[in-house]
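fyi for ur records
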Amino acid sequence: MPRAHLCFTIPAAATLLGLAVLIGLGVTGWPGEVGAAGRDFCEATRPGPVMQPANTYSNAGFLLVGLAIGWQAWRDVGARKTPDWNNPIVTTVRYPVGYALCSIGIGLGSTALHASMTPWGGTLDLLAMHLWGAWCIAFATTRLARGGDRLFLALFTAQIGALLSRLVMGNPYSIRGSDLFGAMIATAIAIELVGRWRNRRRQRIDANYLLWAIVTFLAAYACSRVSTSAGPWCDPDSFWQGHAAWHLLCAGSTAFVYLYGRSERLLVGSGR
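which gave:
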């Protein structure tokens, strides 16, 4: 039987370790060129280890979502779901842990950016977002092809290699990180919709969760666009920031994607 407790203990350990590292760096002094990044997100910089408080602390949403996913996965895997589920999100440790770590990674990466406003923080922020997109693409493609762990690992690893190569080569295709993230999301949704059509006679899934994920993300995107430094809703000295709303709504969208994947079941009599 899989060690179900790992579904929660691994994300929890990653969260604590990541926060400990960031707090340590912030208290002792952020390395690199502090204040050189993140100026497009409206919020005025403050003195101290947390330069953009609202945009920093709102990343708690991603951390909490990751921990909640780990907790739910612990219960799912421990309950020994029947084979009719045919769903690695609820029957294995590795898939929910990987997804939970992606959410936690986004929270930690974005915290590094907005707390330090350093170029390396911005790099971590975008890389974490891209890894989440890569996970979604790999999982959607694997389910579309009715493949297994080897296919998922090959797809995910290939995307990680491409993302790291892009960083090493200095963005050779002149594609902005945010544009690449949007393209990855669109690709994952397109693959998922094709997969749902192909497997419609053998699987049941609650598509409402996917709809809510898309709606929540679009709302997040709208908040982000109107609250940039040049946007009409920008108030640098406000306690509340539109980019903080982007973080919280995106965390909600991440949770809906998980619930969507978790709801999948094999229809009785359709075979495996």
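The chain has a mean pLDDT of 90. thats all i got for now
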